[in-house]
Design a protein that fits this description.
This protein is an alpha+beta fold and 291 residues long. The chain is built from 13 helices and eight strands. Pfam families: AraC_binding (PF02311), HTH_18 (PF12833).
Length: 291
Amino acid sequence: MKIPVLNIKQFQSSKEVHQVYVNSFANHIKINKHLTSTPHSHNFYLCVIFTKGSGVHEIDFKSYSISPGKVFFLKPGQTHFWKFKTPPNGFIFFHSKEFYEMYYLTHQLSNFPFYYSYQNPPVLELTDSLKGIENKFRELLQEYHETQAFRNLKMVNSINDIYIILTRAYTSTLNLADYASVNYLKILEQLEQYIEEYYHQEKLPKYYAGLLNITTKHLNRVTKETLNKTTHQLIAERVILEAKRLIVHSQNPLARIAETLGFEDYAYFSRYFKKKTGTSPIDFKKSYHKK
């Protein structure tokens, strides 16, 4: 089994609307159960707010509780699925990178902290501000179902407004005076892009420092000051994440998975995996399927 990558077109409810989708969460789950009932990833950006319900949201093997006031953000490629204990509701929207950035030439989705780095938590818990933001989602849903002039532009502006409000809540506990420099953040963003592209074959910090035209020492300084992690840790985390995805969601033998991830043999891969996770690939697979 290979984990499905869902395309935004699979959810389109209107032929006139492209690269964006908006719905109440209860209706979304009801009409798309055949797509969302098993672990999957997307080729788009997703935001959902819960107003009712309880359960667990698993994102890349990390579990987050579902409750009213929780907001989740997903970037393209992240694997997730829902487990509900009580019936959920709220609002959900997703869109392509192009849909948003074609209207904001000087502002990118990666400027928002929840989409900036895979290291940033994909969840936000709202309290007093829930009602106000809920109305913003409701207005977006209403615009989505109407056919007035400049609908796409209005929807992008509404999405941007939601993202700004959520960013302020998301960063409310941060001391912005201590926040990393813009230059460091740009290096980190480029590093994550390079790791995503080359982690199968390149696992040494020196390689990525070369791509960035900086020294390995400086690259480690950037990752330590922005994330409190070494470059090697970031590379290893991406390798292990993909290993877990393949171990759980594919039918390939472990030796084939090791080869896919650029390891010379299974024994080396098994030692690497156990060192980073504390368990062997075989034991990880068994324990995951017992959940």
